[in-house]
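Notes from hallway chat w/ T.B., transcribed later so I don't forget. T.B. wanted the structure written out for a chain they're using in a teaching module, and asked if we could keep both sequence and structure tokens in one place. Agreed to drop them here.
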Amino acid sequence: METKERKVMIAMDGSVHAEFAFDWYLNSFRSPQDLVLLIHCIERHDKFHAALGSADVKMVCEILAQEEKEEANLKKQLEKKLIVNKLTGTVKTGVGNPGEMVISTAKKEHADVIICGCRGLGKLRRTFTGTVSDYIVHHSHVPVVVCRHHSHKDEIQHQK
């Protein structure tokens, strides 16, 4: 029986949790027919919003230029990650709300599954702020694998 191509989206935010999810994909989920889509979304910083509020055009332009440079560097790193690991796929980057971008891109690209990390926020903080992984799980039209880093087991034990 021939295995069909899967479109696997992996959310990458530069954290150890996203790296753990990527490594989990490589070691536990990878299939030779996979088409991998690495996705990263840049959120606007507080400095950007402050500069907008003060109408400091020069500062806004500097912040935008810095973010474009960071996005280009990250895209190159993620493209290299695909090559080094001999994966067929692409990298998508953008600016906005990460959860919303992951969901909209998954629909547009017809992803079969989404893989993401989990920061392991406590219940109280997660209740007030939400998390990207929570958003993805609750809004996705395809299966989602949330990879919890091993260090979270210790954090959960301490919360009990």
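Follow-up for T.B.: Residues 124-129, 152-160 have pLDDT under 50 and may be disordered. Might be a good example for the class.
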